[in-house]
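During the no-cost extension, the postdoctoral fellow (Dr. R.K.) reprocessed legacy sequence entries with the updated structure-token encoder. One reprocessed record is reproduced below for audit purposes.
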Amino acid sequence: MGDNEDELTFTVKSWLSDYDFRRLLRIAKYLGRRGGASVFRLNISSVIDSGYGVDDVIALLDEVNAEYSDGLINVLEDKLKRGTRGRVIIEFNGKYLVLRFSNYLGKLYDELREFMRYDKSLKVFKALPYRYSELINKLRDLGFDIDDRTNFLVNSPLSINAVFKGVLRDYQEEAINSWVRNHYRGVIALPTGSGKTVIAIAALVKLRQRALVIAYTKEQLNQWRDAILKFTNIPEYMIGMYYSREKRLAPITLTTYQTAYRHVDKFMRYYPLLIIDEVHHLPAEKFRRIATLMPSPYRMGLSATPYREDGKHVELFPLMGGIVYYRTPQELAEKGYLAEYKIVTVKVSLKPQERKRLLELRRKYRSLVGYAQFEDVLKAAREGDEKAIEALRVHNEMKMLIQKSEAKIEKVRELINRELERGSKIIVFAHYVDLAERIAKEVGGLLLTGNVPTERRREILRKFRDIKSGVLVVTTLGDEGLDIPDANVGILVAGTGSRRQFIQRLGRLLRPSEGKVSVLYEVVAKGTSEELQSRKRKEIKLDEELMP
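Re-encoded structure tokens follow.
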């Protein structure tokens, strides 16, 4: 938001009659309630259309006891002196904003180039809907008369005086304040168990706008609904669940990524506030469509870490507003907000026959592609190169041999037995379904994979929550939405070098309780790529360039 928009904002703390409210809406846009006051932004085009002069505007503001800056008067005088730059019609064609200007833009295009592009074939300007509010504000700042035919609701206050009933920790307040300072936009990156959902709910209450909340799983949607009911006075009928067979729009609507992708046209016109949980999924090709088509001016992304190994996390800047707040698990553990923890790397030697087979596969891989970068091998395989395709098959066999090594499985059994004797509650992250099934069978543990039906998953989780000590073996299904507060031991059997995945799995163990010290074991095959992956995934500090 530019300086002019800030200067054009004014507040009214006293009660407004319907008559005065309507009078203000003739010349200003209502932004909602903040800090016990009604907040408006003067709309220069509306002032011109209403035939108001500077004195008329000031007289009206003074009549309703509005608080405004000298800058508002200066900007208003300047804009009215210059008059309108011409008329612009804005429409939405289902994919893009389409802008038609009455006058030739000339050098003004340089000031608008960031938001829109010229389509030579259609002879119109086009912009993505997520730039809608910024574009409107910029056009107003430049003095255009705007004919907005999109029917987008970028201001739609909740019908009740929403109240937050929780108590925020210091870092949670810091996170919200950072988000507010960034004009109610941005990504909050905090470890699992740190209360990101509570932060978002407090922000929702603070803004008091209709909201669309997107989570990754149906189980997470239920957790969101329960948390909103617990921490606010918002009644259940104002919360709509929109997924599968249950599709009800409400002032606060909860949906999954998959459903939002398919039905974004149903949501895009109604929700000024967009909250996206596990926002690291957003840059994926099809999911980014959700954020680009939603015109919501207010956006919050949540993640244990928004870092992606493919580098697409940088796309979170324009889509969500950048990373506005970040804290590591260590920082919060030191303050007592998360359980103390230690990470133990356990290195094992491959069995002689496994080592022999691995060396054979390595030689075969090199004979096919030499020392080419893996990304280049992938690219060649996609283009149909037979040697590259065979090299990928060999590479995959090497990976499976290492990650499913008998030596690793033996060590995992040893660690589980030792921790069970101590009365520990253990989560084993096995990554692969067949590996998870084998470990669960051999240690008598509960098993949770993507093959398990939804209702059965709930039963398994209930059973594991209810026991004092035991083992739960999970695949990647356990990376998100797994809430076992008293789990204190984790074992990584097989996985990747993903920092995000590592932080998420560590976070499953960090719910605090008196005297709790959690342990995360990572079982690594010596002399293999797993040693490098182990170092890589523990580099959990975000690059400084990601911060605004």
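Residues 352-369 form the longest helix (18 residues). The first strand starts at residue 9 and ends at 12. The remaining legacy entries will be reprocessed before the final report is submitted.
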